[in-house]
Amino acid sequence: MVPVIRVANGFHARVVAARLGSDGIVTQLRGGIDTPYPMGAVEVLVGEEDLEEARALLLADDVETAFDDPEDGDPPLARRRVLPWVALVLAGLLILADVVAMATQTMR
Questions:
Q1: Whose CA is closest to 45, among 63, 22, 62, 20?
Q2: Digits of tens for pLDDT over the chain (108 positions)?
Q3: Fewer CB atoms inside 10 A, N or C side of the chain?
């Protein structure tokens, strides 16, 4: 078995392994994947006879992803992370404004 790609974490490694497995390429994972505290990079290994095909599949996936239109489908990840915080801050400001208005009425 030879490394075809090194990824940042176990989840990404399992996704790559599933992608290659869907085309009949047997994979093995090496790194911090099945430990009590899985951390660090993980290598995806394939048989030497499947190395070129695996590289071609992963390259094709990368190329297809590069041409994806971000306006199609879900908003970018950064926008999805910010929206809940914006809603939370606005709710907090509304509550604060209500408290100040109630305090002002009781002072009169």
A1: 20
A2: 999 999 988 889 999 999 999 999 999 999 988 777 778 899 999 999 999 999 999 998 888 877 766 665 655 555 556 667 788 888 989 999 998 888 888 776
A3: C
Helix then strand count (H, E) for the chain reads 3, 3
Q: Give the single-character DSSP code of 9.
A: S
Q: How far apart are CA 52 and CA 60, in angstroms?
A: 12
Q: Which CATH number applies to 2-66: 3.30.70, 2.60.40, 3.30.420, 1.20.58?
A: 3.30.70
In this structure, are residues 39 and 32 in contact, taking their beta carbons and an 8 Å threshold?
yes
Residue 48 CB contacts under 8 Å (≥ 6 apart), including other chains: 1, 2
Round to whole Å and give the CA distance between 48 and 4.
9
